[in-house]
Amino acid sequence: MSQDPPINLDGRGSPPAAPAPRAGVEDLTRQVAELRRRLEEAEETIRAIREDEVDAFVVSRGEAERVLTLESADRPYRRYVEAMRQAAVTLSRDGIILYANRAFAQLVMRPLESIVGGPIGPHMAPSSRPVLSEVIARRPDGRGEALLERSDGVVVPVHLTASGPTEEPDIVCLVITDLTDQRRLAEVTAAERLSRSILEQTVDAIVVGDRSGTLIRAGAAARRLCGRDPIGLAFDAAFPLRPCPGPKGRDDETVAAHRSQTARS
Questions:
Q1: Which tens digit of pLDDT belongs to each residue from 184-222?
Q2: What totals of helices (H) and strands (E) does the chain contain, helices first?
Q3: Which among 151, 94, 160, 100 is positioned nearest to 128, based on CA atoms?
Q4: How far is it, in rounded angstroms, from Cα 150 to Cα 125?
Q5: Cβ atoms of residues 215 and 207 within 8 Å
Q6: Where are the domains of the chain?
Q7: Of 90, 108, 80, whose CA–CA distance to 178 is shortest?
Q8: Is 39 within 8 Å of 47 (Cβ atoms)?
Q9: What is the C-alpha to C-alpha distance for residues 141 and 15, in angstroms, rounded to an integer?
Q10: CATH number, span 75-178
Q11: If we measure between CA atoms, which residue out of 122, 98, 125, 128 comes closest to residue 112?
């Protein structure tokens, strides 16, 4: 039979078992803290990626490091809009400018940072604000002509085109085209058309020449007088002039003397 160990009645027997060392608990605590730190770092990285706060990653491969650049789907579109010669803005439902390219800032002659976050209304002439509202209401095919007001008070004629993504109906994309050169060209064309009409309808022979004496315009009467189209010819070649003989064959000096004598008498 097995014998039970003797009971220590006087306290002088074998000592009780020692407790677990604290070093093991502290090691586990450090490991848990490290794992928690790594988890928080991973969660923060995922959050930054989701909120588009990360532009690139640095990846280590041995002793070499590579930079991997992230590029969203709309980044090429943003680059295209920035390079446009036309002004472009993105508006919220309330008309707040969410985005504007540099062409718009140059058109209104204001710093870009002072434009984004502000309303579009103050950049339009007061008489054109209803036009802007109508163009936006007719998107994605909203079009119209309006007047833009620069920071120096000069009013610029513009053409507005409003569109917007179907998946975001509260977002308005507005393209603004400066019509200043087009209007000036139209005015010059109208003036040219008027002058040509006058030249064609007058009964007098009228020609226009440049500083070198080359004819650049000629009316119908001038073409009939010349017998051909004189455009591009020197005036003397198109209309050779000779002294006109006076009455009864007298020369110009005799006629002039006769007129002078008649005037004195």
A1: 777 777 777 877 787 778 788 888 888 888 988 888 888
A2: 8, 9
A3: 160
A4: 9
A5: yes
A6: 75-178, 180-265
A7: 108
A8: no
A9: 93
A10: 3.30.450.20
A11: 98
